[in-house]
């Protein structure tokens, strides 16, 4: 077990190997050993997962981290945490690997130079708790054809730091943005996120469980739903799906 000294109010537990850092974080919530903004990391995951039940590649050298967060009602707003975290990570990567185009992609991916470098998974963890899992491809990335989107590792961009540096940078930005979300709500997060949004105003294809939608990515609603302008059919609000833009 290793510990990284993170900025207040974060605390950290580092493990060599777990099935899933999200599962480990939830276990700590359930047994009462978690605290608000505890971060659980592991060098390797044997059963990592991403959105919609997909396998989450978890080789050593990449960042696998899960945050436990206290959430006040209404819990329907918990999904906004993904926007807070994506915005925070984008700002951190701007500092750690300068000179690249860092964008947020709905609902909670982070892209660099048009390719996915990080993804997130939000899960409830009992009454009043949320677990936020974050994976960042620091040293390696999935092989072509193994993911829905083109991917990139930070190492390919010349980054020479390690996962601890990425986590520390993320927390430096996540703490203030989270505090602002808790104090002011989603509006300032929404505005800042849209300033970094990939595909805003562009044609988009959205794959849902039972249908595929096309339209123009027109923005976010006040709760974080994607607004898809379908022309004569009007504006469609999307709460979950896989989004594709031309060239991505």
Total number of helices: 4
Number of DSSP strands? Answer: 12
Low-confidence stretches: none
Q: Fill in the CATH topology of the largest domain.
A: BirA Bifunctional Protein, domain 2
| Chain-averaged pLDDT | 91
Label the structural class: alpha+beta
Question: How do the SSEs run, as a string of H and E?
Answer: EHEEHEEEEHHEEEEE
Give the count of structural domains.
2
What features would you highlight for this structure?
single chain; 248 residues; alpha+beta; BirA Bifunctional Protein, domain 2; SH3 type barrels; seven-stranded mixed beta sheet; five-stranded antiparallel beta sheet; 4 helices; 12 strands; 23% helix; 30% strand
List the helices and strands and how they pair.
Elements: E1 11-18, H1 21-30, E2 38-45, E3 63-70, H2 80-96, E4 102-105, E5 109-112, E6 115-124, E7 129-136, H3 163-184, H4 187-195, E8 203-207, E9 212-220, E10 226-229, E11 235-238, E12 242-244
Parallel strand pairs: 1-2
Antiparallel strand pairs: 2-3, 3-7, 4-5, 5-6, 6-7, 8-9, 8-12, 9-10, 10-11
Structure, briefly:
By secondary structure, the protein is of the alpha+beta class. The chain has helices spanning 21-30, 80-96, 163-184, 187-195; strands at 11-18, 38-45, 63-70, 102-105, 109-112, 115-124, 129-136, 203-207, 212-220, 226-229, 235-238, 242-244.
Overall description:
The chain has helices at 21-30, 80-96, 163-184, 187-195, and strands at 11-18, 38-45, 63-70, 102-105, 109-112, 115-124, 129-136, 203-207, 212-220, 226-229, 235-238, 242-244. With 248 residues, the chain is of the alpha+beta class. It has 2 domains: 11-195, Bira Bifunctional Protein, Domain 2 (BirA Bifunctional Protein, domain 2, 2-Layer Sandwich), CATH 3.30.930; 203-244, SH3 type barrels. The strands form 2 sheets. A 7-stranded mixed β-sheet has the order 1-2-3-7-6-5-4, with helices on both faces. The longest helix has 22 residues, at 163-184. The radius of gyration is 17 Å and the shape is globular. The N and C termini lie far apart (39 Å). The model has no long low-confidence stretch (mean pLDDT 91).
């Amino acid at each position: 077990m290793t510990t990284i000294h993170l900025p207040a109010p974060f605390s950290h537990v580092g493990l060599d190997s777990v099935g899933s850092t999200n599962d480990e974080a939830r276990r700590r919530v359930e047994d009462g050993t978690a605290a608000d903004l505890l971060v659980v990391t592991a060098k390797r995951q044997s059963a990592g997962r991403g959105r919609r039940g997909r396998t989450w590649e978890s080789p050593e050298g990449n960042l696998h981290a899960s945050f436990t967060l206290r959430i006040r009602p209404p819990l329907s707003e918990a999904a906004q945490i993904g926007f807070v975290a994506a915005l925070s990570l984008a700002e951190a990567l701007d500092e750690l690997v300068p000179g690249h185009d860092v964008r947020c992609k709905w609902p909670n991916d982070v892209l660099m130079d048009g390719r996915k470098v990080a993804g997130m998974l939000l899960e409830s963890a009992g009454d009043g708790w949320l677990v936020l899992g974050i994976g960042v491809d620091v040293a390696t990335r999935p092989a072509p054809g193994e993911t829905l989107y083109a991917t990139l590792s930070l190492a390919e961009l010349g980054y020479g730091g390690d996962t601890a540096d990425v986590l520390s940078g993320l927390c430096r930005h996540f703490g203030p943005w989270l505090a602002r979300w808790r104090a002011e709500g989603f509006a300032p997060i929404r505005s800042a996120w849209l300033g970094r949004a990939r595909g805003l105003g562009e044609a988009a294809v959205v794959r849902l469980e039972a249908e595929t939608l096309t339209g123009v990515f027109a923005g976010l609603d006040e709760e974080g739903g994607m607004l898809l302008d379908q022309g004569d059919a009007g504006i469609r609000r999307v709460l979950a799906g896989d989004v594709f833009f031309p060239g991505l």
